[in-house]
């Protein structure tokens, strides 16, 4: 009897995994240039932690949120002046920005939980060399070299993916 249940569960899992593999793939809209070739960047979703603070007679005081990205380092290495290809769909090019992350032991943290409060460099003509690409895309390269460290390329105007306010970003590392 147990063997029959096991076989039924395995068949259900195989059917489900086949259906999962057939789902439509979302076309990437952010690429990075490596040796002159465009490669799609993998997105990463932030995780939010609420620091409790103090509870004084039923009133919470001093609590705050922290947003972080799991992993000590990004798997995408670049030089100090990385070149990106961005194909904005429902947003504008200047909605994108680069934010430097604070490095910790096993994760990287945003300087502030609110994206607008973080120190960022918005993609515009003052800070980036911008060139047109076919299919309504743009090639962007920072004018000044980035310091070594962990960074994200992020759309500041995106809608959060959940009620905690987590966001999708593209992480990269500028090695020393």
Search tags:
five-stranded antiparallel sheet; 41% strand; 11% helix; 16 strands; mainly beta; 176 residues
Describe this structure in words.
This protein has 176 residues and is mainly beta. It has one helix and 16 strands. The strands form four sheets. A five-stranded antiparallel sheet has the order 2-1-8-14-13, with no helix packed on it. Strand 1 (30-34) and strand 2 form a beta hairpin.
What is the rounded Rg? Answer: 20 Å
**Major β-sheet strand ordering:** 2-1-8-14-13
Distance between the termini: 61 Å
Binned, the helix content reads: 10-25%
Helices and strands, in order, run as HEEEEEEEEEEEEEEEE
User: Low-confidence parts, pLDDT < 50 over ≥5 residues?
Assistant: 19-25
Overall geometry comes to: globular
The biggest beta sheet reads: 5 strands, antiparallel
Binned strand content: 35-45%
Number of distinct beta strands: 16
Structural class: mainly beta
Mean pLDDT: 86
Number of helices: 1
How would you summarize what this structure contains?
With 176 residues, the chain is mostly beta strands.
List the helices and strands and how they pair.
Elements: H1 2-21, E1 30-34, E2 37-40, E3 43-45, E4 47-51, E5 54-56, E6 59-61, E7 64-70, E8 84-86, E9 96-100, E10 102-103, E11 107-109, E12 120-122, E13 128-133, E14 137-142, E15 149-155, E16 168-174
Antiparallel strand pairs: 1-2, 1-8, 3-16, 4-7, 5-6, 7-11, 8-14, 9-12, 9-15, 10-11, 13-14, 15-16
